[in-house]
Write a structure and sequence with these properties.
Order of helices and strands: EEEHEEHHEEEEHHHH
Strand order of the largest sheet: 1-2-3-5-4
Radius of gyration: 20 Å
Shape: globular
Strand content: 15-25%
Largest sheet: 5 strands, antiparallel
Number of strands: 9
Length: 288
C-alpha cells in the first residue's frame, strides 16, 4: 500500500512492517502509520531521507539523536518508545519504528484510513485551550519526562505542542531527531544554535537543560491561554472570568518564571517546576 520511492531498489524495507499511509511530513522527515506483519499492531514509522539535506552533517546529527534516545526511550513512561531503527545508506535513508499515538478522533480500534495522531497541538485545535487542571496534569508528566532526560545528560531541543503526543491517554515527548547531549553554558555562549522552532527557543540557553525548560514554559503558556507563543506574556481577553482562577494564576506565575527575560530568574531544573506543580495539584497556592 505504500507509495514511497527511493533511489535504488525502490520502496524502503522496514523489517516486519507494512507502511500504510503517510500521516505527517516536515522539512526532512515523513511519518507513516504502519502495521506489524507479526502482530497486526499499528505503529508509527519516521523516515528520514538523505536527499532532503544539503550535506551529510545534519542527516548524521539526526541519526545520532535517534540512537541516543533509543537507549533510554523505554526506561521512562514520558518518552515515546523507539522499537526499531533501520539505516540503509545505499538507498539513502534511515527509519525508526515507534509506538503509535492515540487517534485524535478517539477511534478505538484505529482505522488506518482515517487515523490522525492525538498531539497536544491537536488538542489545542479542538478545544482552544486546556482547562487549568488539565494543564497541571499534562505539565506534571512533561516535567517528569524532562527531568529524566536531563538526568541522562540529554536535551530534547524541540519541545512544542506538535511534538507532544498522547499514548493511552498520557502525554509523551516525541519527534526526537534533535535530541543530543547537554551543552555547557560556555559552549552555547560561544556558538549559539538556532536548531529547533524559533517561537519556542531562547538562543542564549538553547541546547542546555534550561533551554528545554524555556520551551516548556512557552508550551505551558500556549495551552493555558490559547494564545500563540509569540504573544507572551500577554493574557487572553476575559482572563478575569476564566475557570479555576486560583490554578490559572499559579500557572501564569510558573510560565512567566520559566520564560523570564532574565535567564538568571528562571527555574534551575525540571524538578523545581515539577515540585511546584505537585503542590498546585494538591491544592496548595503560592499566590494568595
Amino acid at each position: 500500500m505504500s507509495d514511497i520511492h527511493n533511489p535504488g531498489s525502490g520502496q524502503p524495507q522496514i523489517p516486519d512492517h507494512e507502511l500504510l499511509r503517510k500521516i505527517g511530513e516536515g522539512s526532512f522527515g515523513e511519518v507513516w502509520i504502519a502495521r506489524s506483519r507479526a502482530t497486526g499492531r499499528h505503529r508509527a514509522v519516521k523516515l528520514i531521507r538523505r536527499s532532503k539535506f544539503q550535506d551529510s552533517r545534519p542527516f548524521e546529527v539526526e541519526f545520532a539523536g535517534v540512537r541516543k534516545f533509543e537507549e533510554v526511550s523505554r526506561q521512562h513512561e514520558g518518552f515515546v518508545d523507539i522499537l526499531h531503527i533501520r539505516r540503509d545508506d545505499e538507498e539513502g535513508y534511515f527509519a525508526y519504528v515507534m509506538e503509535l499515538a492515540d487517534d485524535a478522533g478517539g477511534a478505538n480500534p484505529i482505522d488506518p484510513e482515517s487515523y490522525a495522531p492525538r498531539t497536544l497541538a491537536a488538542e489545542l485545535q479542538r478545544t482552544g485551550r486546556l482547562t487549568p487542571s488539565e494543564c497541571v496534569r499534562v505539565s506534571l508528566d512533561l516535567t517528569a519526562a524532562l527531568g529524566e532526560l536531563h538526568r541522562r545528560s540529554l536535551v530534547h531541543r524541540d519541545i512544542k505542542p506538535t511534538n507532544i503526543v498522547f499514548v493511552r491517554g498520557a502525554p509523551k515527548l516525541a519527534d526526537i531527531g534533535l535530541v543530543t547531549e547537554i551543552r555547557s553554558d560556555e559552549a552555547v555562549a560561544e556558538h549559539p544554535t538556532f536548531t529547533g522552532t524559533p517561537d519556542f527557543i531562547d538562543p542564549r540557553v538553547h541546547g542546555t537543560a534550561r533551554g528545554d525548560l524555556f520551551s516548556f514554559g512557552k508550551v505551558l503558556y500556549q495551552i493555558a491561554t490559547g494564545l500563540h507563543p509569540r504573544d507572551f506574556p500577554s493574557l487572553p481577553e476575559g482572563v478575569r472570568s476564566i475557570a479555576e482562577p486560583e490554578v490559572f494564576w499559579e500557572l501564569n506565575r510558573i510560565f512567566s518564571k520559566a520564560c523570564d527575560r532574565d535567564p538568571a530568574m528562571r527555574f534551575r531544573n525540571a524538578e523545581e517546576i515539577h515540585q511546584e506543580l505537585k503542590l498546585l495539584n494538591a491544592g496548595t497556592w503560592v499566590i494568595r
